[in-house]
Amino acid sequence: MLHIRKSLIITLAILLMIPLLLPQSVSAKPSASKSAGAKANAKIIYLTFDDGPTAHTGQLLDILDQYHAKATFFMLGPQMQQFQKATKRIVADGHGLGLHGATHVPGKFYKSAYSGLKEMQQANAALNKVAGVKTSLVRTPYGSKPYLKSSYRNVLLAQGGFHLWDWNVDSEDWKYKKDHQKVYNSVMKQIHNVQKRGTAPVVLMHDQEATLKVLPKLLKTLKAEGYQFEILTKKVQPVNFWNDKR
């Protein structure tokens, strides 16, 4: 009887020691899963700037560098030719590249199904001449609605091979150039609303002096809230007012 009791005690002691003898890598699985989940739930945001480059692009890029933020620039052909140094720096700094046409005049850009395509091709040629690169991302003047009709889109996207981008957060920084707090409040409210819907915010801003006044505060807040600044590429599904995924 005593022998049986000793055997039971020894067996119990061995069972209690088994977890301590297992490799530590087994207990690391939960933390690995947690890490993967955190990456999947990352808060991505896309900052975009229209109408440049300008005399203020250098300062804009300095601010983005300060906060380790990347953005996408939808640029005009003549502006790239005029501000070649800024254009080259946008490329060298690894920002996203987009085209905004040549004239920025609705009556000219949307004159026909092929006028917009021609302007985007001219802008791409300017980008290639100045910086030695091209892009397939486009944003039409004043957004794609209501001017860019279905037949116009087919020419621009199907024949031209471009990808159409609009936005889901409008800063209206062109409208409230003096009221920086209004711009900040509006942008943050829109970003939070878009994020709640499970969509990545695509923020429309402009390459202008007034935007330099509000940008640092926006970047500081967004970084504090855990947003990651990424650039638009042809691999990202387009966000546009027509829900055209081409």
UniProtKB/TrEMBL annotation:
InterPro entries, alphabetized: Glyco_hydro/deAcase_b/a-brl, NODB_dom, Polysacc_deacetylase_ArnD
GO terms for MF: hydrolase activity, acting on carbon-nitrogen (but not peptide) bonds
PROSITE patterns assigned to the protein according to its UniProt record, in alphabetical order: NODB
UniProt-listed CDD domains: CE4_SmPgdA_like (cd10944)
GO biological process terms held by the UniProt record: carbohydrate metabolic process
All residue ranges annotated as the NodB homology domain in the record: 43-230
PANTHER family: GLYCOSYL TRANSFERASE-RELATED, POLYSACCHARIDE DEACETYLASE YHEN-RELATED
Full protein name: Polysaccharide deacetylase
